[in-house]
Amino acid sequence: MTLKSKIHSSIGSPSSPIKILLINPNSTQSFTLDLVPVLTRSIPSDVSVDFITAPEPAPASINNNEDCKLSTRVCEEHLDLDSPDSAWLEEYSCVVVACFSQHPLVDSLKRAGEGGSNGKSQPAVVLGILDAAINSALGLGGKFGIVTTGQQWETLFDQAIASMGLTSRYAGTKGTGFDAISLHGSEVSDIMINASTELVGKSADVIVLGCGGMSNMRAMIERELSGRIGRRIPVVDGVQAAVDMGIGYARMGIAPSFSN
Fold first, then answer.
1. Phi, psi (rounded to 5 degrees) for 128
2. Percent of the chain, pLDDT > 70?
3. Which one of 43, 95, 138, 241 has the fewest CB atoms closer than 10 angstroms to its CB?
4. Which Pfam families match (predicted)?
5. 178 confidence band (pLDDT: 50, 70, 90)
6. How many whole angstroms separate alpha carbon 222 and alpha carbon 141?
7. What pLDDT, in 10s, does the model give residues 129-164?
8. Which residue has the higher pLDDT, 121 or 92?
9. 191-225 burial, b if ≥16 CB within 10 A, otherwise e?
């Protein structure tokens, strides 16, 4: 099967000079489809986005590091990343892994891009939405806090932020008890706003949404949270941040650096 046959949704023109590939490493296609209208509203006319969802047996929701590892193995096989020729990565300006974690698929794609680069064109920049969201948040306030799904992520994100050397800019993570496929309804919104309010009370100036499934809630949470606090509290969505970052790199003509 070709890569094209694995793309189930696209926005923008196939002839666009800037092409983004978004990979959802869980197997819930409805989650991926929820991202299509979010990005459609903001994508410039010279950008296209292709969407791929991992097949089963990738987990329906990625809830821990073991799920990350399983979904990586499934995606590596699905995308044929072990092939010596991964030149398809050069067709894209950027590849986004839409899971808010230190997902090992990011490094797998980078290795595939390095191995498949033939020197004739620029390999794709590969971005995870955790890194993209945090890098965006750093420019918007002194400290950031993360609102996420299950409480098991609180310790994992503490460790991730420490590994990035950003503990002094970090107000903490608050889990809401949901998973990526149950982020719907007014109860979820209320709990997320309460969790965000708690993080602001712990000195967060910016809130980062710690799950790609929260993307379509960003504007609402920012509006409701800022109204409750009485001042603007920026809310960052990692999917949008990663896509916009990839577009920015493409406009600057920047390609990733390889060690060899």
1. -95, 150
2. 93
3. 138
4. Asp_Glu_race (PF01177)
5. confident
6. 14
7. 999 999 999 999 999 999 999 999 999 999 999 999
8. 92
9. bbbebbbebbeeebbbbbbbbbbbbebbeebbebb
93-108 pLDDT tens trace? 999 999 999 999 999 9
Among residues 66, 62, 10, which one has the least CA distance to residue 35?
10
Fold of 3-128+240-252: Rossmann fold (3.40.50)
Chain Cα centroid distance, residue 142: 22
Residues 76/108, Cβ–Cβ less than 8 Å? yes
CA separation, residue 160 to residues 17, 140, 147 (Å): 34, 20, 15
Cβ atoms of residues 115 and 39 within 8 Å:
no
Phi, psi of 247 (to 5 degrees): -60, -40
Task: Locate the domains of the chain by residue range.
Answer: 3-128+240-252, 130-237
130-237 CATH: 3.40.50.12500
Q: What is the pTM of this model?
A: 0.94
The two tokens of residue 146 are 């993360």
Q: What percent of the chain has pLDDT over 90?
A: 82
**Are 3-128+240-252 and 130-237 in the same CATH fold?**
yes
Could you give the CA distance from residue 80 to residue 236 in angstroms, rounded to a whole number? 32
Q: What are phi and psi of 86, to 5 degrees?
A: -110, 40
Distance CA 10, CA 255 (A): 23
Are the C-beta atoms of residues 99 and 174 closer than 8 Å to each other? no
Phi first, then psi, for residue 9 (nearest 5°) are -150, 150
Spatial contact of 205 and 225, defined as CB atoms under 8 Å apart:
no
| Pairing label, strands 9-11, 47-53 | antiparallel
Six-digit token string for 131: 């890194």
Query: Do the Cβ atoms of 127 and 96 come closer than 8 Å?
Result: yes
